[in-house]
Amino acid sequence: MGASKIPAEDIDTILNHIIPHIKQHITIQLTCPTKSPFVLALTGLQGSGKSTWTDALASTLRNKHNYKTINLSLDDLYLDHDDLVKLRETNPSNKLLQARGQPGTHDTTLSVSFFRSLIDSEEISIPSFDKSLFNGEGGRVPSHQWETIATCDIDIILFEGWCVGFQPLAEEKAQLRWEAAGDATCGPAYPTDTLKEHAVEHILGVNRSLRQYCELFMGPKHFNYLLHLDTDNLANVYEWRMEQERALRQYKGTGMTDEEVIKFVKGYMPAYELYLNQLRKGLFAGIEGKGQLRVVLDQRRKIIAIKSIA
């Protein structure tokens, strides 16, 4: 299965797990003085098809199940261009902050304001970030161009992002993980042991930023359900992204080379190494009424397992 199309039966299978939680939430909301939409978080590895899954799920929720659904990507919450430039220029030795993506490159004030407005405002404006601006460095779309919608018209918000659902480690544990990592100077063509390619203080900085995200807008208390697109082999991430970029080069004449893809994906690998195992164990441990589903994809992005996480 390619990333461009997800079988309708797969979407229906996934939603069969989620819809009971949505119905329960909406029933509870009928007696709540303060209304809040159902927050369906979607997290997935690079190249797993997060955007395609998000669009398919949102469309099915709207058109088949009649839920008023909006979606937001974590990417739309990036710092604006000038702030991203300032961040990388003030941290020249930190490879994790030389491009947008990592915790620490998003606008936490904007993020908190958006999610609060879902509850305490009559309407919201949905942030948007255009990755094509500034020669591909990206920049925020002017706020007057954002889509505005009445909050009473929202049953579900589908919030997707590559590190959504990740939880920070205790600083000592993150340090120990870094110390135990393998030698980054040798290894396979598609490396999945990359922590030592970064200074420990840079790894710890991302961990601190993730902690702030989770406290403010991205932790388990902020979500009702988490859908996790995972794989049985982490090296698949490289192949998936290469496939996407090759298609871009073929149809648009632009896209990363295979070598550039490897460099790009390696930038995300440290977070996978630190946080994926905990995510697989469960985001909502000890929290009643919430749910998590792990969807395991093979090299061709075909579903090979669906696991409900208690």
From TrEMBL:
Keyword Coiled coil: no
Subcellular location per the Swiss-Prot or TrEMBL entry: Cytoplasm; Nucleus
Coiled coil (residue ranges): none
Domain of life: Eukaryota
Organism: Penicillium frequentans
InterPro entries noted in UniProt: P-loop_NTPase
Protein name, as recorded: P-loop containing nucleoside triphosphate hydrolase protein
UniProt keyword Nucleus, yes or no: yes
